[in-house]
Amino acid sequence: MPEFADAMAFRHACKRFREQKIPEGTFEQILEFGRMSPSSFGMEPWRFIVVTDTALREALRPLCWNQPQITESSHLLIITADNECIKPGTEYVRAMFARRGLPEEAYERYLGVYANHMGPQFHTREAIEAWTHKQCYLAAANMMTGAASLGIDSCPIEGFEKEKVEAELSLEPARSVALIIAFGYRLNPQPEHYRLDLDTIVERR
Description:
Elements: H1 2-10, H2 24-35, E1 46-51, H3 54-60, H4 69-72, E2 75-82, H5 91-98, H6 104-118, H7 125-149, E3 153-157, H8 162-168, E4 175-184, H9 198-201
Antiparallel strand pairs: 1-2, 2-4, 3-4
Helix pairs in contact: 1-7, 2-7
């Protein structure tokens, strides 16, 4: 618990990074934190793009409100969502349930529950993205807190022109950009955290 609390206190939205690279083995651990994250129905709709090409990062920066983290951070991670594979009845959904090794009856029941619950929600592309992007944020939170436990800073970025970023990445139509995270080592001292107190945000019934 103290280590987790320390990581939460250490983490902040780091805006400027110094020129120091995260060791590749360490960054692989951060990616592993994302891979091991929970997702609704275990669908894991996230796909991670690690942007290492300098020219691509330069091209992305003006599409991300010219934020310096895009080019200054050690590692730039773009979390995308796969929005077609998670529709009920796809081979992907069947495979994700099949890997649990359930008896046939239980397997078919799970498929039915998933179809009945998710099918009506997936009536538009926007509705699908609303669901898949929420899953991506679970992975993002774990990667940022996990990075903080390793003494590595991060900054989640929602300020970008979504369609233009997707075009720059040549994403296939089934995928969408959920958010971008910059990872590295802080250049400036950490600013003060501002949070509402528990009495304000917790309701007990």
